[in-house]
Amino acid sequence: MPAAHRASSPSAGLGLFLLLLGLLAPALTWAQAQHVLSGLVRAADGTALPGATVAVPSLGLGTATDAAGRYRLAIPAGPQSVTVSFLGYQPQTFRVNLSRAQQRDLLLMPTTNELTEVVVQGQQTLQQKLETPQMGVEHLSVREAKLLPALFGEVDILKTLQLKPGVQSGGEGSSGLFVRGGSADQNLVLLDNMLVYNPNHLFGLFSVFNSDAVQSVDLYKSGFPAQFGGRLSSVIDVKMREGSREKLTVSGGLGLIASRLSLEGPIDKGRGSFLVSGRRTYFDVFTRALNRANADNENWQPIPDYYFHDLNAKANYTLGERDQVFATGYLGRDVFGLNSFGNLSANFSWGNTLGSLRWQHTFSPRLTANTQVGVTSYRYSLGSAFDIASFGLTSTIRDYTARLDLDYAPDSTHQVRFGGSVTQHTFGVGRLQVETNDNSLNINNDITYPALEAGLYASDSWKVTSRLQAELGLRLSGFHSQGRAYGGLEPRVAARYALTRTVSLKANYALMYQYAHLVSNTGASLPTDIWYPTRLSVRPQRSQQVSTGVSWLLFGGKFLLTDEVYYKWAKNQVDFRDGAQIFANPNLDQEFLFGRGWSYGNELYLEKQQGRTTGWIGYTLAWAWRRFPPQRGTTGINDGRDYVPSYDRRHNLNVVLLHQLSTRLRLTASFVYTSGAPATLPAGRFPVQNVPGGDLLAVPVYPDRNTYRLIPYHRLDLGLVWKLRPVRLGTERDLTFSIYNAYDRRNAYFVYFEVTRNPDTDLIDGFRARQVSLFPIIPSVTYNFTF
């Protein structure tokens, strides 16, 4: 096996990592006559404020708090004036006179100006976005997502990410993400650092993330930090809220299809907090009532029962000045059932479960460690029963993970991160059970593959000069399965050069490996798609991406314009051969085909964060390609010729506007336009008479895969948020009105052909294409409350 895929020995991997640390040694040891000021920035209720700015304006030094609200800033000894700010909160300025490292925690009070409170703000200000060396990064706060119009009034953070450039949806109403030409399984989705295998409810219509429990989302399309690995296209890093440390709060919402309820409050007031949040849909309540009402109607076709629910929980507690512990839990299930009035019943359920425990220890103001252990699992179960027999099919994935992350700030020019992780996988590829009532037939076939995945990484955010910043990282990843070892080095480089105070040039390069593969026999992402490990003939996927661009602050810093171009190429892409036997197949790797893919594009993005009117405009011009040559006795895919995948979109335009009408009314709108989805449609038909004297059959003739495109997709959504008067001090209420697909555009979900006949002879005289649309105009209203 090539060296890029087979690790020679554990000692070789350790040697490479020690070499990596040696390259970063100057950053770890060099410190000038400076002292580190560190601490936490929180809101008045104790909630952490990620993305808050901590700066010494007179020296031009500054930093932003991380996802936990922590900051570290190395400043020269002597008296200095430090300013802390976060949009929607009153800035705070204080004096320090450092002769040694010092820790200082800060509480920011909400501003009394209601207009400022409702300004939409992500985790980074426009100035911070200009100054970071990373590109292809989108930061989203849940407050931002909650303002936008939503399908059925159900806020979905993944759908909001679809409004960013370079991100394609999987189709009408879908929460699936296809980032820069990558497939859906190439997104690393994390909830508080724990892997989520299937981030969708309702066959992809909604995501599993309850907006009431989420604080922020970071999407990395390129410039991936070295601590992330295992996927090729993107990282979606979701952080849960910690809950209020000051008072007990109940919040929730009542919508058309689902309700939400959250409870949060202090644990030993001021030292810790908890948050519990749940939601559930109502579909099954109505379908069961209709089925019962028509139980005696012989012509009634039973409607399947369907519902989903999820539960989020998080707790944190401060053990002392140097130690804090965090616990996170998630449970989500989709349940689909059909109990007919005859002798047939069927049920289908799937969902994620995860839990983790994290210990944060501060060795010194310069060095902090986070140690985390956790378990995550995904399971689907499909079953049916007849008069005499029952059938069941189950697939599972279970991971046990341990990781250690260390942050070290030697001085104001270096921010070093290093650590590692190890995960024990168990892939239950398929468990088939077939049995009869009299036990005359009993089949139980269980296929399980264990695997071990590990990674070591180190990175340095280095301020080389006042104009040049670099993010240097290296990851060593490895995977062990079926007695074979695979691995490789994954370099990550990002750089930013400031041409002026308002214009920056940026460039990124990243190499990624992926050792788990999602394989599907359909064009849609379904819960029954199978995760399969690298083993035998299935080698790791690998991708490389280069990107470059310019960022420009306009009109006194009120607007940020970015222009990014990228090129990405990947090999060992996985797909099924035609006629593959998928379920409960112990030799599933023999059903795979392997190919390569590449994509490239240009992304333009204009954003405004301040004032009565905020929002963004994003345009993407992109191409995505695949090639699967002849192999394993097949002609490959598309006879080995290049083709575009189903999620390729040439043009993608997104416009998002949020306008403050008054202190109580906010108007929101989003417009989406994309090129039509590629489709494989028959170019013609030829007649075949399989029986002498019988009817002629029209056999379709297909051209190359995805030769045609459906009509362009476009849609306008409108929303109005009406803040009601509080019933008492400390309470909040609002009504959120949404109109999905405001001008009732009938977008194509799929196309089929119907036979047309001559009215005189009743003979077939042609075929006519018919379009199926999923959603017409859909108004909705949601009542949200906090008390």
Automatic annotation (TrEMBL):
Domain TonB-dependent receptor-like beta-barrel, residue spans: 300-741
Coiled coil: none
Membrane topology, record value: Multi-pass membrane protein
Main location class: membrane
A GO molecular function held by the record: siderophore uptake transmembrane transporter activity
Protein's GO biological process: siderophore transmembrane transport
Spans through the membrane: none
Keywords carried by this UniProt record: Cell outer membrane, Membrane, Receptor, Signal, TonB box, Transmembrane, Transmembrane beta strand, Transport
InterPro entries: Beta-barrel_TonB, Beta-barrel_TonB_sf, CarboxyPept-like_regulatory, Plug_dom, Plug_dom_sf, TonB-dep_rcpt-like
Cell location: Cell outer membrane
SUPFAM superfamilies in the record: Carboxypeptidase regulatory domain-like (SSF49464), Porins (SSF56935)
Any GO CC annotation of this UniProt entry: cell outer membrane
Domain TonB-dependent receptor plug: 154-231
Family recorded in the similarity comment: Belongs to the TonB-dependent receptor family.
Protein name (Swiss-Prot/TrEMBL): TonB-dependent receptor
Protein species of origin: Hymenobacter metallicola
Upper classification of the organism: Bacteria, Pseudomonadati, Bacteroidota, Cytophagia, Cytophagales
